[in-house]
Specification:
By secondary structure, the protein is α+β, with helices and mostly antiparallel strands. It is built from three helices and four strands, in the order βαβββαα.
């Protein structure tokens, strides 16, 4: 398994290439404020919606939160002691 992230205006183009090549992606305002050319994202949710659209337009499925936790071997917020 591998993933990629792009910073600034390259975030979504790199995410698209990563998914097309069989990798995973992550997006977020911590890496880029943009959602498209000249268009600022209002929230992380804007970027996630755009990333989901990219994944689905390539005929692929987005992992559910439970599946993503299993892939990454994470225990989930309900099982941490803080």
């Amino acid at each position: 398994r591998w993933s990629a992230l792009g910073a600034s205006r390259n975030q979504l183009p790199i995410a698209t290439l990563a998914v097309a090549m069989g990798g995973n992606l992550r997006v977020g305002l911590e890496d880029s404020l943009w959602i498209g050319p000249g268009e600022l994202a209002k929230s992380n949710a804007d970027q996630v919606r755009r990333a989901r659209s990219i994944v689905e337009s390539l005929g692929l499925e987005v992992a559910t939160p439970d599946h993503a936790r299993a892939i990454l071997e994470l225990k989930g917020g309900d099982k941490v002691g803080f």
